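hey so u asked for the seq, here:
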Amino acid sequence: MDPGSALAAFVAGFVSFLAPCVLPLVPGYLSAISVLDASELGRPGHARRVIAASVPFVLGFTMFFVSLGVGAALVGGRLFSDQFLLEKVAGFVLVVFGLAFTGLLPWPERLVGARLVQGARGSGSRLFLGGAFAVCAAPCISPVLGGILVLAGSSGTVVEGALLLGVYSLGLAVPFVLVGVLFTRAMGAFRWLRDHYRVIQFVGGAIMVALGLLLFFERFYVLRIYLNRFLLWLGLEPAF
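ran it, structure tokens below
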């Protein structure tokens, strides 16, 4: 898996967490999976309970997103035998998704599957609830999720496509668990991020456009070069 794509996937997962259809619902999901009142989240002694309850929930939405990554890799590999052509198509689509994410292109957004979430809560399965959460959030975060799926489709192998969406899920899971563990302190920081979401949205979209252009013009290797230089600047030995 290309390190540049992995970094983009992780950042995309974090940006998805800040989406208007995700962040405001986090306390409700944390309360549902931990069986704690929202006012009790973040209190001493509840950290382990929240972390343990978050594991199956995270696995639920990770399974959904990884299956999308596998599907994207399979479709990309079958439709385009020419890797260069695949990268050009992927780059073009990624630019479109990036422009949509910045708000420069119209994009329909709506939350679906409310009954699915209710059914998952009623079943008591945190794994099912995680999957239902992913299904419901997918339409709203579709520009950024679609961008990562495009990268998965151009990755070349099913394993790389699955890993890429696994990293995306990790970027979504890390802040989710941190908010649960440090609820009182973390919500202040995330309120600031929510208030500046428009800037984050524009920067995230610009990054997607840049990645798309690098793919389209067959210059994606440039990102790897700069990542190597950054690691050397930090005093770390590049592993790629």
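Residues 3-37+46-233 form one domain. The radius of gyration is 18 Å.
lmk if thats what u needed
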